[in-house]
Design brief:
The chain has one helix spanning 3-31; strands at 39-40, 43-46, 50-52, 58-65, 71-78, 80-82, 88-90, 105-108, 111-114, 120-126, 135-145, 157-158, 161-162, 171-180, 185-196, 202-212, 216-224, 227-237, 243-249, 262-268, 279-284. By secondary structure, it is mostly beta strands. The chain is globular and about 55 Å long. The protein starts with a helix and ends with a strand.
């Protein structure tokens, strides 16, 4: 084997390994915080949550492309645990009281190409096996962008060096929750205290404690003298954690302006949902 052939062989091998590493790294970075938004890259998904049971056995997801060019997304099932700060991490085995929902639902199609301005749908169907134990089961549908592949030619690798183009791979996931049997979940708000956001703005920090065999999800609303002064929507406490630490930013009001006043903190059913208050408490600003 000549020196030129050896160099070409090892250069191509290095490029392939490096590209795989970049793709894996980008994938990790793209899906580490899927709970923060339901839009990534050019894709927007609605609804943001699928809940299935014996009464609600199917759901249709609407996908839209807010970008300027067609994008292809591969759809798969992934499992996450939630920690006390609300971050999600991929896992292979259930944590805490969690149970996985993969195998309890079907979805189609498994890959879509979205053109700008032309929505597409994905259907999710509940498939309950016989003998399913009562409980709440959760997995997530991951929508992972399929990157464009560029051919690597002989000009990329040369004795002068190697050039690799790095592209971000976008990923977004939504929870699929299956409930079977008589389930209930209760919440309690504790650890109320003034706080600061990373940008220095005023906020109230609190802890939502969860008990029971069902996860919690709702909106945290702060109010004073009948006026809303802060809100954080769509706050979930999954079965993988017994409590969730939350920081709710104040709106226009500053803590100084609220000095001596009492702030009511309510954990309410999500907007548009009926039901009693999940939990409530109050704090008097000193």
């Amino acid at each position: 084997m000549t020196d030129n052939v050896k160099f070409s062989f090892f250069s191509n091998l290095f490029i392939k390994i490096l590209i795989k590493f970049v793709l894996l790294f980008s994938l990790f970075m793209g899906i580490n915080f899927p709970h923060t938004a339901m839009a990534a890259g050019g894709i927007v998904i609605s609804p943001q949550l699928v809940e299935l049971d014996n009464k609600n056995r199917n759901t249709v997801l609407t996908l839209a492309n807010r970008g300027q060019k067609a994008e292809t997304y591969r759809i798969s099932v992934i499992n996450y645990r939630m920690n006390e700060q609300g971050n999600l991490f991929e896992i292979d085995k259930p944590v805490g009281e969690d149970a996985f929902a993969n195998g309890l639902f079907r979805f189609a199609p498994r890959q879509v190409t979205l053109k700008p301005g032309k929505p597409q749908t994905v259907r999710v169907l509940y498939r309950r096996p016989s003998g399913l134990e009562d409980g709440e089961y959760r997995s997530h549908l991951l929508f992972q962008q399929v990157p464009e592949t560029a051919a690597v030619n002989s000009d990329v690798a040369s004795r002068a060096g190697i050039s690799v183009e790095i592209k971000t791979i976008f990923g977004i996931s939504i929870p699929i929750i299956v409930r079977h049997g008589n389930l209930s979940g209760n919440g309690e708000i504790t650890e109320l205290k003034p706080a600061k956001k990373e940008n220095g703005s005023d906020a109230i920090s609190l802890r939502i404690n969860r008990t029971g065999n069902q996860s919690l999800r709702g909106d945290v609303v702060l109010s004073s003298e009948g006026k809303e002064v802060g809100r954080l929507n769509n706050v979930a406490v999954y079965l993988s954690t017994p409590y969730r630490e939350v920081v709710v930013p104040l709106l226009e009001e500053k803590l100084q302006a609220l000095s001596g006043k009492t702030i009511s903190v309510d954990y309410l059913p999500r907007k548009g949902r009926q039901g009693p208050v999940i939990a409530s408490n109050n704090i008097t600003i000193q």
